[in-house]
Amino acid sequence: MDQIPATYNDLKAVITARYNALPRQLKKFGRFALDNSDILALETVTTVAQRADVQPSTIIRFAKAIGYDGFSDLQQICRNRLMEDTSSYRERIKSFRSEGPESAGSRLNEFCEAGMDALDHLRLNTPSDKLEQAVGILKGARDIHLFGQGRSFAVAQYLHYALSRLEIRCFLADGAGGMLKYQLGIAGPSDAVIAISFSPYTPVVNSVVTDLAGQGVQVISITDSPLSPLAEPSAVSFEIAEAQDQTFRTLVAPLCLAQSLVVSLGQAIAEMQPRRPATKDEL
């Protein structure tokens, strides 16, 4: 390696760039490292290996493949990232943890915790310039096409509702009857597409995104990892990490991101419109 990653963003970029060339076990740990940097920051190499379901030697090999001397260097990068958050978030979360038998109230607390965790990751890992780039693409698009399958469909449906209320031309591809590719067949280089997909990724969504990007359509993806099959072909990719032990994963963060894009786009369009000249009485 020409340069050893000095920050978490550098590390993320290196893992993403070199991922396909890594051996299978190093790939497995690379994905875990991107999705669970807090665990790497706080736990021993033995515990991290157990959580990632790999051997400790795999972690050492991975660290050296990236350019570090060993696990401690990799861990320090993750610790530096964790220390950047001054909100004492983990202590705040601990205060919510319920004790005693499971109940509807304790289940609500669990989902609230998961939602706050996802929102915190979204806030810390979504650069403003990436948001501005996405808004610029949407503002310049003739039409906006939206699609997501499974639980992702709720986010696409919200975007369709919100953009329609702003009187922005948009089309929701729901894939009914297996018609997803045909519904998106009208999208061209002057259009923009927002695609939403989370692990386990829907194969048809992956192939459609790749096809659209190959035709010159600018794709904005909302997904969960820089290693997602949606990330590479997208002009802009938002990766929202979620807790891996959640049976039912929250949509709080994706919907928050969607809402932010809609409101920012509405403001950008309003700023483009010419102001009404002042009348004589107003002067």
Task: Provide a descriptive summary of the structure in words.
It is a single chain. The protein has 283 residues and is an alpha/beta fold. The chain has two domains: 8-83, Winged helix-like DNA-binding domain superfamily/Winged helix DNA-binding domain (Arc Repressor Mutant, subunit A), CATH 1.10.10.10; 128-272, 3-Layer(aba) Sandwich (Rossmann fold), CATH 3.40.50. Helix content is 53%, strand content 8%. The chain contains 13 helices and five strands. The protein has helices spanning 8-18, 24-35, 37-42, 45-52, 56-66, 71-83, 89-94, 104-124, 128-139, 153-165, 180-183, 203-214, 252-272, and strands at residues 144-148, 170-172, 192-196, 218-223, 236-239. A five-stranded parallel beta sheet has the order 2-1-3-4-5, with helices on both faces. α8 crosses α13, α9 (128-139) packs across α13 (252-272) and α10 (153-165) runs parallel beside α13. The protein is globular, with a radius of gyration of 21 Å. The mean pLDDT is 84.
